[in-house]
Amino acid sequence: MRRPVLPEPSPERLAGLDDAALHQALLERVEAAWKLCRGYHPELPKPKVWCDLRGKSAGQAHYGRGGLRFNPVLLRENRCAFLSEVVPHEMAHWLVRHLSDGHKARPHGHEWRTVMERLFGLAANVTHSFDTGRASPRPHRYHCGCQAHFFTSRRHSLVHNGRSYRCLACAQTLVYQPFVAHEEGATNV
Q1: What is the rounded CA–CA span in Å between residue 167 and residue 129?
Q2: Which residues contact 92 (CB under 8 A, 6 or more apart)?
Q3: Topology, domain 11-119
Q4: Which of 18, 26, 29, 52 is most exposed by smallest CB count within 10 Å?
């Protein structure tokens, strides 16, 4: 494995950035990765960039919208690793998709791995290892006889449509408890 081709961002510099400056640093990193890719594929269109991704995903190449989506919470909490790993990861998807047979390539297949390793000089890691606790909140509180449980909006919707869940510890049916803030020691289901 080669050393990364894009220069490593300075952790000290990134630590002092507010959200607007951090967003600008993201745009600059995308621009640098795009220019590197254009050296290989000169017709590669420049992707638009959005910081509107939520949940556990750090980034997404969105071909329908014509750009790259990033998770602002994970960017804020993992600044250096995000810019070093996630931006090249998504730009590799962008490049592979725009190759002549890119629409046939598997998302993390041979072509993508080759771009990650040979063009960007990075390990072809499919997933990140960021803490996603604050990026994928579970805002809906339920309770049983022994503890509080927090549900995602999707699971809460299933309950609203008639599905029920039981606590694994006490076997009681979980009951929705609206408008209560998260507590320490509560479980997430």
Answers
A1: 28
A2: 112, 115, 116, 119, 120
A3: Zincin-like (3.30.2010)
A4: 18
Helix (H) or strand (E) holding 170: none
Greatest CA separation for the chain: 63
* Triad 95, 83, 100: Cα angle to 5°: 0
- Structure tokens given for 57: 């995903």
Distances (CA, A) of 4 to 36, 52, 88, 121, 160: 12, 27, 10, 4, 49
pTM reported for the whole predicted model: 0.73
Handedness of CA 133, 136, 137, 140 (dihedral sign): negative
Q: What share of the chain is helix, strand, coil (3-state, %, to 5)?
A: 40, 15, 50
Among the options 8, 77, 90, 183, which is catalytic?
A: 90
- Tell me if residue 111 is catalytic: no
DSSP state for residue 43 in the 8-state scheme: T
Tell me the domain boundaries of the chain.
11-119, 140-188
Assess contact for 175 and 144: CB atoms under 8 A: yes
**Is residue 113 within 8 Å of 121, Cβ to Cβ?**
no
